Amino acid sequence: MIVTQNTRKELSHIPLETRQSISRIGNAIQVLSNLGFTITLEVIMETVNLSNTENIDIHDMRGSEFYVVVSENEAERRLH
């Protein structure tokens, strides 16, 4: 992506919280996809909420530790 002065202005108008939410959702989808799980809105939101509950930094959502947490959460979800 080419960053221009106009692009910077547009980005500055998008609240940080919104950008962080979009990043969390994208990371959740990537993690679920890499783990081979079925991707539904419910599972995406559960993964996003899990990252918030566990205080996982957005960048750390792509790390192996979070993959383990998501796998354990999915196993628990499937049991109930």
UniProtKB/TrEMBL annotation:
Q: Supply the InterPro entries for this chain.
A: KH_dom_type_1_sf
SUPFAM superfamilies per the record? Eukaryotic type KH-domain (KH-domain type I)
Which superkingdom does the taxonomy of this entry point to?
Eukaryota
**Which terms does the record give in the GO molecular function aspect?**
RNA binding
From the Swiss-Prot or TrEMBL record, give the protein name: Uncharacterized protein
Q: Which organism was this protein described from?
A: Arabis nemorensis
